[in-house]
C-alpha cells in the first residue's frame, strides 16, 4: 500500500498525458473537472496557512503537474464540444448557463474580463514577484553564509545548527529559482486558455453551420454556452493556482500564516480603523449615497477600532503591573544570587578582544539591520590565520553609552588600546603626496596609520578620486584600524590553550616530532614565549614543523630562548624575505660597521639575560639617525627595514622598538640568496 502511494504521483502524471490522446465520456470529464477545482482550492488554502515558503517546497513541481492536468482536460473537453455539438458534460453546461444568464454578449464580456484579470493582473504580478524574489535571494546568499560563519565562530550556534541553516539557505535559493521558471508556466497556461476558447467557438460555429445544418442563432446558443463554460472551468482553477503562486512568493516578510498576520496587523492599528470609520460616516451624508450601507460599515469600523484600542491599553497596563510586581522580586533574587561568592567569579572574566561602539555606529554592527562588520571580521580572522598561522580569538562587540555617538574603542584583555571616530554618512578621503585639486570636507587623521585625511560627502566621492584621494567607506576605516591593532598585539593574544591546540594540529600529522620535542627538550611555556617573540615582530608561525625542528636542533648548543628564536628566523628566511621583498628587491637601512662593534662591546649579561649598556649620548645619536633614515621610506610606501648582522639584530630591535614600533629589524642571514638588497640609508655615529 505504501509503495502504491509513493508511485501514485507518477501514475497520475502518466494519466494526464493519456488525457491528451484518449477521448473521455462526459461523466468522467465532470469528475476530473471537480477534482481539478478541488486540488486548486486546497493548494490556495495551503499557501495561505504556511509560515514560510519552504514548508511547501514542492509547489513548483505541483504547479507544472496541475497546469498539465488542466490543459489535458481542456483538450478532452474541446474534443467533446466539437464532436458532440457542445455536449461536454454537466459542469461545463452549468458554468456556461450561470455566466451567460440568457445574454450571450454580456456573458462573453464577463468571461473576457475574468480572462484578462487572470492574465494581466494575477499571472503577470506573480511572475514579476517570483523573478525579483529569486534575484534577491541569490544575491543575499553570500551575506547569509558569512553571517552563519560569524555566528559559528563566535559560539552563538553549533556546527549542527550551522549545517541546518546553510541547508535552508540552499533550499531557499533552489526554491525561488524554480519559482522564477514555474511562473512562466502560469503565464503560458493563461495564453493557452484564451487560444483554446477562441478555437472552440470558431470551430464550433463552422461545424454547426456546415456539418450539422443548424441555424446561426442555434449555433451561437449551443457553442457559446459550451465555449464559455469550458473556459471558466479551466480559468477558475488557473486563477486559484496563480493566486497561490503570488501568495507563496510573498511569504518572505511574514511571521505566521496569512490569516494570523492579517488579523494581528490590522488589529494592531486601531487608530486607522477609527479614522476610516469616521470618514465613511461623513461620506454617508452626501446626497444619493447608500446611507444605510455606509452607516453600517462605519459602525463596524468604529467598533473594531474602539475594542482593539481598549484591548491594547489593557495589555500594556497588565504588562506594566507585572513588571512592577516582579521588579522587587528580581532585585531580591539578584541579591540572593550574588550572596553565593561562587557566582561573583564569572564577573572577573576578561575578554581577549573587545570593540565598543557609540549608538550612531550600531547600524554598521547590527547584522539583522544589514550591518556587515561581523562578516568582515570573519573574513579578516580567516585571512590572518592563513597568513600568520594563528587564529585570533573571537572579538566581542558591544555598544557603550560612555562613548560619543560616532566613537569606537578597541580593547585588549579589558584595557583600551586604541580608539577612533568615524562619520557613518561620509567617506574618508586620504590625501596623496601630490594633490591634483582640493576638495571640501572635514579634516581628520586616518586612525590606523595617522595619515591626514578628510571626511567628504558621498556626492564628492568621484571628484575626490579624480583628484588623487584614496576614498574609503566608514566600515573599512574602522575594520582596518581594528585589524592593525589586533595584528600588532597578536603576540599578547597567544594563550597557552591556543599553543596546545597548535601543537595538537602538528601531532596529528607528525606525532614523532612532537613527542621528541615536548616536554623533554622544551616546555610548553618556553614554546609559547618563542612563538610570541616571532608574532611580535610580524613573523608568521604557520610553518610549525620547521619551528619545532629548529628548536630540537638548537637545543644541543644553547638553551637561550633569544638565540633559539634567532635560529628559527634564519630557518624561516624565505617567509621573512617574502614579507619585505618587492619585485626581487629589498630596500633597507644598514648599520655602520663601527656602530655594530660598539653595540657588541656594550653587551652586558645579567640574571635576566643579555642587554645593551650604551651611553645616553650614543643612544640619542642612534635614535636620531634612525628617525632621519626612516623618513626616506615615506615616499616609497614601503615598511621601514633596518638590516644588521645576526649577532646584534635582536638587541638592536629591543633598543628601538619602544621608539619606532613600526620599524622592522632583520639580519643578513634572514634574507634569501636570490634577493637584491638596495640600501637607501646608513646609520652612523
The N- to C-terminal Cα distance equals 98 Å
Characterize the main sheet. Answer: 4 strands, mixed
Residues in helices, as a percent range = 55-70%
Category by helix and strand content: alpha/beta
**Hey, roughly how much beta strand do the residues contain?**
5-15%
State the domain count: 5
User: Total strand count, please?
Assistant: 14
With strands numbered from the N-terminus, the spatial order across the biggest sheet is 2-1-3-4
Helix count, DSSP H or I runs of 4 or more residues: 25
pLDDT averaged over residues: 79
- Morphology: elongated
Radius of gyration: 39 Å
Low-confidence stretches: none
Task: Describe this protein's structure.
By secondary structure, this protein is of the alpha/beta class. The protein has 5 domains: 12-114 and 182-264, no CATH class; 269-348, no CATH class; 353-491, 3-Layer(aba) Sandwich (Glutaredoxin); 494-571, FHIPEP family, domain 3 (Helicase, Ruva Protein, domain 3, Orthogonal Bundle), CATH 1.10.8.540; 584-685, Rossmann fold (3-Layer(aba) Sandwich), CATH 3.40.50.12790. It contains 25 helices and 14 strands. The strands form 4 sheets. Strands 2-1-3-4 form a 4-stranded mixed β-sheet, with helices on one face. Helix 4 (59-83) packs parallel to helix 7, helix 10 packs antiparallel against helix 11 and helix 13 (373-388) packs parallel to helix 15 (474-488). The longest helix is centred in the N-terminal third of the chain and has 53 residues, at 159-211. It is elongated.
